[in-house]
Amino acid sequence: MHNLVMLCKAHHRQIHHTDWQVRIRDGPPEFLPPKWIDPHQTPRRKALAHPAAA
User: Fold this and answer.
1) Distance CA 46, CA 10 (A)
2) What is the distance between the alpha carbons of residues 27 and 13, in angstroms, rounded to a whole number?
C-alpha cells in the first residue's frame, strides 16, 4: 500500500482515461501532465500544509 493515492472520482477517471500520469517519489504524489499541456512534463505537486505555529 506504499503506492496509493487518494483521488476524487473525477480525478481518478482523468488519470486512467487521459495521458496524465501519477507517481510517488520522496513523499507526496507527483502528477505529470501530457506533453500537449507541458512538453517537458514537469511534475506537479500539491504543497504540504504546514501546521499553524502555536
Assistant:
1) 17
2) 23
φ and ψ at residue 24, rounded to 5 degrees: -115, 120
Instruction: Kindly write down the DSSP assignment for every residue of 2-51, as one continuous string.
Output: TT-----HHHHHHHHHSS-EEEE-SSSEEEE--TTT-TT---B-PPPPPP
The reported pLDDT for the residue numbered 4 is: 85
Nearest to 33 by CA among 23, 21, 45, 25: 21
Spatial distance between the Cα atoms of 3 and 48, rounded to a whole number of angstroms: 18
* pTM above threshold 0.90: no
| Three-state secondary-structure class, residue 53 | coil
